[in-house]
Amino acid sequence: MRQRNALGGMAVLVMIAIAGCNTPSAPGPETSAPTPAESGAAADPDSESSLPADEVILQTVYDQVESLDLCNGFYQPEVAQAESRVYRVGDRALVELVCANAAYQSVYAYVAYQPDGSWQPLSLDVFYPDETGQFVRTSEGTVGGLATFDPEQGLLTVFSKARGVGDCGSLADYRWSGGELELETFRYQECSDSGEEFVEPADYPQIYP
């Protein structure tokens, strides 16, 4: 029997770990982007300091999480409020919304906050192997894994474990452009039970580009 692919396994584990969360019945963020008035904040686009305080930006996002289903059903409010962050780069901000924690990684959603006070949920491109083993590119509103962001480089790195030991899964790098997260590299390691030598995520086979 063909081995279940790594990312599919990760998704199942995340589903089990946070199955207690209820999925809000609401339109997806791609059809319901909030306006500056809805965000409750307006800013002077000529100055970085005109952005609201981090707490204000985060509360703006929290207020819309469930109505816009920003977390794709994976939402633990106490986790989001304790662990979410705002990264200021120039006159804009990247909001990292930690939707939920599972056994060994988290579920994230990302939002671009603009100088005029408007904000937009972001999508991240990923690759999944299909039944034939060919990789298919798709876009997701949430991502499961361990994420780090380097504001100086404008680089978001997401290591998505397929199982707790961390010997398989994917490693993706995204470049923050100020308005979106553009996929730069994507690496993928299939899970194996053959006892092969551990491979560091940075050495996973490169799928893209």
Average residue pLDDT: 82
Gyration radius (Cα, Å) is 18 Å
Helix content: 10-25%
Say how many strands there are. 11
Number of H/I helices:
5
**Elements, N to C (H/E):** HHHHHEEEEEEEEEEE
- Helix/strand class: alpha+beta
**What's the number of structural domains?**
1
Question: Segments where pLDDT lies below 50 for 5+ residues?
Answer: 1-48
The biggest beta sheet, please?
Answer: 9 strands, antiparallel
Beta fraction: 25-35%
Query: How far is the first residue's CA from the last residue's CA?
Result: 30 Å
Shape: globular
What does this structure look like?
With 209 residues, this protein is an alpha+beta fold. The chain has one domain. The protein is 17% helix and 35% strand. It has 5 helices and 11 strands; from the N terminus they run αααααβββββββββββ. The strands form 2 sheets. Strands 1, 2, 3, 4, 7, 8, 9, 10 and 11 form a 9-stranded antiparallel sheet that branches. The radius of gyration is 18 Å and the shape is globular.
Describe, in short, the structure shown.
The protein has 209 residues and is of the alpha+beta class. The protein has helices at residues 6-17, 36-39, 54-62, 65-68, 77-83; strands spanning 85-89, 92-101, 106-113, 119-121, 124-129, 135-140, 143-150, 155-161, 169-176, 181-189, 206-208.
